[in-house]
Design brief:
It contains 14 helices and 21 strands. By secondary structure, it is α/β, with parallel strands linked by helices. A 10-stranded mixed β-sheet has the order 8-7-9-6-10-11-12-13-14-15, sandwiched between helices. The chain has a 6-stranded mixed β-sheet with strand order 16-17-21-18-19-20, with helices on both faces. A hairpin with a 2-residue loop joins strand 13 and strand 14. Helix 1 packs parallel to helix 4, helix 10 runs parallel beside helix 11 and helix 11 packs parallel to helix 12. The longest helix is centred in the middle third of the chain and has 16 residues. It is globular.
């Protein structure tokens, strides 16, 4: 593992544009922990910004040319930063190298034993499960995750161990920059429509990622999901196929899931390892609800085994993972109503989280406040989003959260609402976010579960809903 302070010269004094973002802040944190003099800017203050300042980073609120120090060695950006951003323009004018976040992360992983976690969904959870369980075993990994853990409470850490666990983003092809010893691919589905025109383009992109696996390394991939199976067929048909370890319920899986038993908001999972991995049968607890989270844990177990971590030690350690913020995170309970936050924004994720939470609802109803994310995604998958929402007892659908995109004429949340109604859903449109707490307070009854769902600022509504439920009027 590269010791503290040995990042490349360009990352000695980096300036991050949008430093408060989940992915950017993680890289900035590790660099600060390794001794780099980190600075950055963001549009607003936040707990993440506060945590960076505690690590010694200088963070400016608002973008301005003067934010970039005279001796800055690089300006770090993500794909969300536009070319006309004032600080980006200033960097080019001053001849300061502009480094993509993925290149900075690749530099951090140099000299370690990297595990890179990819897939259309489930990356943050699986990366987090590995980070927490490896720490529980005393292996002290470094990690960069696209979300904040419930424990140990950070999106990133510089550890003294040799393993580096990183979430690998396929959305902009930036995962092509990494050279993992173990690559995990959870699933392969059509998404990120602004960057991929077809499934063939997505398969080609994942094939490039697989081709980056280090000699002697391994690909860990689902044996169940159709896109993953197709990718496996494509990458094993070449002249030098990687070592492949599959996991899942399929009989052919190297780590085969024999049973997933739900117990409220936890699951008990039983797996059988192939003879090449020791041939053992293991039963362990996953401390978050739902079949898809159980399968994420099995992917983490398989990756650890591929890296040489004893499966019989890693399996019980996985129980120490208690969740990631925004991944079915309980925000609180008021008037007998639980309010839970979900980052789900792709139809597969929406359906999976609703099915998972249904098991913990008992006799109560599941009510959803859903905010579609991105015009491009809604244009392509709005019908499927609406169909997935039909799994809830009732849904309130907000306007599309644009994030980095400009509006697309004719594309609104009505695409989701109409599709949900066609599938028999009880669905309500609400254009005013501020009206949602009152609306939910009128709908919810003791025993119900309320999910705020989406990748945008719908997460901010959880506390407001709880406050309204506790008010004397309710």
């Amino acid at each position: 593992m590269a010791p503290a302070g040995t990042a490349s010269d360009a990352l000695d004094r980096p300036h991050f544009i949008g430093i408060g973002g989940a992915g950017m802040s993680g890289v900035a944190k590790v660099l600060a922990m390794r001794g780099a003099r980190v600075s950055g800017s963001d549009t607003k203050d936040s707990p993440i910004v506060g945590a960076l300042r505690e690590l010694g980073a200088t963070v400016h609120i608002g973008h301005a040319a003067g934010n970039i120090a005279a001796d800055a060695t690089s300006v770090v950006v993500s794909s969300a930063i536009r070319a006309d951003n004032l600080e980006m323009v200033t960097a080019h004018e001053r001849g300061i190298p502009v480094v993509h976040r993925s290149d900075a992360l690749a530099a951090l992983m140099d000299g370690s034993r990297p595990i890179a976690v990819a897939g259309t969904h489930g990356k943050t959870t699986t990366t987090s499960m590995l980070a927490v369980s490896l720490r529980t075993l005393g292996l002290d990994p470094s990690y960069v995750i696209g979300g904040d853990l419930d424990a140990p409470g950070s999106s990133a850490r510089h550890g003294d161990g040799e393993i580096f666990v990183a979430e690998a983003d396929e959305s902009d092809r930036s995962f092509h920059k990494y050279a993992p010893e173990v690559a995990i691919i959870l699933n392969v589905e059509l998404d990120h429509h602004a960057n991929y025109a077809s499934m063939d383009e997505i398969y080609a992109s994942f094939q490039t990622f697989v081709g980056r696996i280090r000699p002697g390394g391994a690909l860990v991939i689902s044996a169940d999901q159709s896109g993953a199976r197709e990718l496996t067929a494509r990458v094993t048909g070449g002249e030098e196929p990687p070592r492949v370890l599959t996991y899942g319920e399929d009989e052919s899986a190297d780590v085969r899931v024999l049973a997933i038993e739900p117990h409220g908001l936890t699951s008990e999972v039983t797996v059988r390892l192939a003879e090449s991995l020791g041939g053992a049968e293991l039963t362990f607890t996953v401390s978050v609800p739902g079949r898809h989270y159980a399968l994420n844990a099995v992917a983490a177990l398989t990756a650890g085994a591929a890296l040489g971590v004893p499966a019989h030690e890693l399996a019980p350690a996985l129980a120490s993972y208690t969740g990631v913020k925004r991944r079915l995170q309980l925000k609180g309970t008021a008037a007998g109503v639980q309010v839970i936050d979900s980052y789900a924004h792709h139809p597969t994720e929406i359906a999976a989280d609703l099915e998972a939470i249904r098991g913990g609802a008992g006799e109560g109803r599941v009510l959803v406040v859903f905010q579609p994310h991105l015009f491009s995604r809604t244009q392509e998958l709005g019908t499927e989003m609406g169909e997935a929402l039909s799994l809830a007892d009732a849904s309130v659908v907000l306007d599309i959260y644009p994030a980095r995109e400009d509006p697309v004429p004719g594309i609104t949340s009505a695409l989701v609402i109409d599709a949900a109604a066609r599938h028999g859903a009880d669905v309500t449109a609400e254009h005013d976010r501020n009206a949602v707490p009152e609306l939910i307070a009128g709908m919810a009854k003791p025993g119900d579960l309320v999910l705020t769902m989406g990748a945008g600022d719908v997460t901010d509504l959880g506390p407001a809903i709880l406050a309204r439920l506790t008010s004397p009027e309710n």
